[in-house]
Write a structure and sequence with these properties.
The structure is a homodimer of 213-residue chains.
Chain A (H helix, E strand, L loop, with lengths): L6 H20 L3 E2 L1 H8 L3 H9 L5 E2 L3 E3 H13 L4 E6 L3 H8 L1 H5 L2 E8 L8 E2 L2 E5 L3 H8 L3 E4 L6 H10 L5 E4 L14 E4 L2 H14 L4
Helix pairs in contact in A: 1-4, 2-3
The first copy, chain A, binds a DNA duplex (22 and 22 nucleotides) through helix 3 and strand 2.
DNA sequence: CTTTGTGAAAATGTTCACAGCC
DNA sequence: GGCTGTGAACATTTTCACAAAG
């Protein structure tokens, strides 16, 4: 049980968790680091070392109790059971994310969409209401929304930066805009960038070099 | 100019490229490692070191020619100018990806969608035809599709693994299914996993620990 | 004076190897 | 026999610091 957890470890642990939930769903009760490693394409030592940053979860000679480990890892990664999430941008990507089944399943509750298009405001997408982006602060405070997923076109970037800089409740941002956001705030806001076209560039690099991953 | 390029370097270079294209669009002609670092939230040394894996692109005392660097990095990451891409799964995520403007802009041409739903087969989504997944090998060979983006529900995972294991032309896979794929093939296939709910778990971990990124 | 490119040092991350337990 | 947890060894990656160039 060590102090500084590598971010790579956190990413892998999230991957283990996904896999463990799948195993739980399939009815597997116990799994060894060897088998979990095989399923997630890492080494058994890596699995054990990663888990050891957070505690001792296994039984020598047996392996890990799938149910227990799922609960432990959920707690470690999520901190609290339920998070309220909003999506900024009710375009095709935003709408697809509202439908993404695994968010709700993991208790990331999408409770609002935001857009600036008058034709969309007031409508519902998959039972989630679209609010005027001008109401962002009011709605996020009212609904206690701490996570914002940004799915707007690049052109709206400045507006989003301003809106988030003024906001006082959002603590985390998942950014699908392919430009690094510059949010000016004294509060700490955690940001994760997901640039989909970047992934394709990395993929073609791997293909060209003949690497698996 | 060294031999083994870290994958983290490749990821950052793709990020620089995205940023440089934005600068080019804004009319910036020259940029220093310092300024590029600020825009992409890394250190100037990191930028220079990363680029040095691939060559000497800068002018001492001046910086990097934005136009030239964009062209060089495009060549390095993509290998060839144009790639044909298909999307498996014409659900909301698949449809959103067809609409994602940056794919076409970067010459990743989406030329086919695949699904197993008879109601969708034969229709068009954003001018891209939906084919029967049973025709996967025929269509990919005919259209010379080397990259597959997987946007199917988890339940279709086994079918996808089988179809890809049989296929002889796909060289790269961008996998949005939140389970690591197990493709049995003697050919080398590069795979990149993008698990969206995993990102939320990492985000809540960062929030809880009070880390920016 | 500014900025690149890069060895060398420092920091970080992964693998090894084995004690201890079932 | 089978498996976990973990220091220590090893490997990789990042940062430092500076010579060389415009």
């Amino acid at each position: 049980m060590k102090k500084n957890v590598p971010i790579a470890t956190v990413e892998r642990v999230a991957k283990y968790l996904r896999c463990l939930k799948y195993l739980r769903y399939k009815g597997t009760k116990v799994i060894s680091s060897k088998d979990l490693a095989e399923l997630t394409k890492v080494t058994p030592e890596q699995v054990r070392k990663d888990l050891s940053y957070f505690g001792k979860f296994g039984k020598t000679g047996t392996g890990y109790d799938v149910n227990k480990l799922v609960k432990k890892l959920e707690k470690i990664l999520k901190g609290k059971a339920k998070w309220n999430v909003c999506i900024i941008g009710a375009g095709s990507l935003g709408s697809a994310l509202v439908n993404y089944p695994r968010f709700k399943e993991s208790n990331f509750n999408i409770v609002a969409l935001f857009d600036n298009n008058p034709e969309k405001i007031g409508k519902e997408i998959n039972h989630i209401k679209v609010y005027d982006i001008a109401e962002f602060s009011r709605i996020t405070e009212q609904k206690k929304i701490e996570i914002a997923v940004i799915a707007v076109p690049e052109s709206a970037r400045n507006d989003i930066e301003n809106i988030l800089s003024k906001n006082r409740i959002i603590r985390g941002v998942l950014n699908f805009t392919p430009i690094t956001l510059n949010i000016k705030t004294r509060r700490k806001i955690s940001i994760i960038d997901v640039d989909l076209s970047q992934k394709l560039y990395i993929l073609t690099y791997l293909i060209t070099k003949g690497k698996r991953r």
